[in-house]
Write a structure and sequence with these properties.
Cilium- and flagellum-specific protein that plays a role in axonemal structure organization and motility. May play a role in outer and inner dynein arm assembly. Keywords: Cell projection, Cytoplasm, Cytoskeleton. It holds the Pfam family CFAP300. This protein is of the alpha+beta class and about 260 residues long. The protein is globular and about 55 Å long. The protein starts with a strand and ends with a strand.
Length: about 260
């Protein structure tokens, strides 16, 4: 990933450019029973949120800082996120850190090497391993071993660049779940949920004479700090405390995807 960029939230000498209105979008993982049941089983149903907003003004890359500032000054957005206390805040010690997240994967063939290297068998069964713990996460199978343990034989199956991909990240988040997660013995639900969410939150279009499918969304990882202490998405660092902003300039939409451990 590119290095993090810092935006001072209190730097509001400018006039607001972007206003945000909620978009009533249907996300399959939140409404389809089988998918909702997975979120509940993984202890993510009450701690996982998706919020989508429409903005009127034209967006270009030069306005990125402005959009982030306006987003985190929006009364509508802050109420949805549960941070009403930030409304009209002028705290000079508050800053937003944003990090580019690559979003280029177009097929779940990206996960084929998990089967090819027998982390999961062809029917999806995940191979077990000796149990250990990392940041309160139980590592009891080869999938979580590959995801988290850098010394494991299978960790190099995905390069650092591939691990930074948005699809890999949301797959990983589902695999790790919440604090009281009931882990799956089969990998298929994890891939299904990652694929479903990915398709729902990114925008694509056909481009060029060959009508090649191109991802138009821009994805960012977001953290907010006050006096150097994290305050959003959580007050502590953890693999499963995350917030992503998915920007679709074509639709003039921004989606916030977040979870707390």
């Amino acid at each position: 990933m590119d290095s993090k960029k810092v935006i001072l939230l209190s730097d509001i000498q400018h006039l607001k450019k972007y206003e945000f209105k909620p978009v009533d979008k249907i996300y399959k993982i939140l409404i389809e029973r089988d998918l909702k049941d997975y979120l509940m089983k993984w202890n993510m149903d009450k701690s996982f949120g998706i919020f989508t907003y429409h903005f009127q003004d034209t967006y270009d890359a030069a306005n990125k800082d402005q959009l982030f500032k306006d987003l985190f000054h929006s009364e509508v957005v802050l109420k949805d996120l549960g941070y009403q206390s930030w409304i009209n805040s002028k705290d000079e010690k508050t800053r937003i850190e944003i990090e580019d997240v690559p979003c280029t994967i177009l097929s779940t063939e990206f996960f084929d090497r998990i089967y090819e290297n027998e982390i999961a068998l062809q029917d999806g069964t995940i191979r077990k391993c000796f149990e250990e713990y990392m940041d309160d996460i139980i590592i009891a199978d080869e999938l979580r071993n590959m995801l988290l343990v850098e010394e494991s034989n299978n960790y190099p199956l995905y390069t650092a660049k591939e691990r930074a991909e948005f699809l890999f990240l949301i797959f990983k988040h589902f695999c790790l779940g919440g604090l009281l997660n009931q882990y799956e013995d089969n990998i298929n639900p994890y891939i299904l949920m990652a694929k479903t969410l990915y398709k729902d939150v990114i925008c694509v279009r056909k481009t060029g004479s060959l009508k090649k499918t191109t991802i138009m969304s821009q994805v960012y990882k977001v953290e907010v700090f006050n006096n150097g202490i994290p305050i959003y998405p959580s007050h502590k660092h953890h693999e499963q405390n995350f917030s992503y902003m998915i920007l679709c300039p074509l639709r003039k939409e921004v989606t916030i995807l977040h979870h707390t451990w």
